[in-house]
Amino acid sequence: MADEHNVLLVHFAEPDHCRAAFEDFRLLPGVSAAAVLERSADGIVDVPESHVEDTTGYTVGAGIIGGVLGLLAGPAGSFLGLANASAAAEAFANAREAEGGSALIYVSSRVEDGTAALVVDVREQSPQPADDLARRHGGALERLPAKEFAAQVRAAEKAARRA
Asked: How far apart (Å, rounded) are the C-alpha atoms in residues 145 and 66?
């Protein structure tokens, strides 16, 4: 496997296992971003952990958290939360925040009540290290090419705008 840009979704029945896995996954070579998404038994989404390799001096943290917290107010609220959190950042940072926030909002719909998911943006030389970590922590790993994942997020954004 040559250098492949993937998004890893690792699903966990136990949120504590997801948080423990986060620490190991964020240290994998090629990881540019990682986040833990937890959905409570009553459906509330939280992002208790996130990591972004910040080589440009920008951060996506505010946009991601703003977007996810906006989920409490419904689809329109999620985009408003994301926009408000992004307003103070520079133009390039705003674009990165919007992409990261939209991606987490999209992934949150795939996290069942009472469970958690780890989302990892990574350039992999081999699938083996991530596969081994997922297995060791008891997670079910789903690997998507980054371009395919981005297309799914864009399609979800488009559908939300139409609704």
From this structure: 26
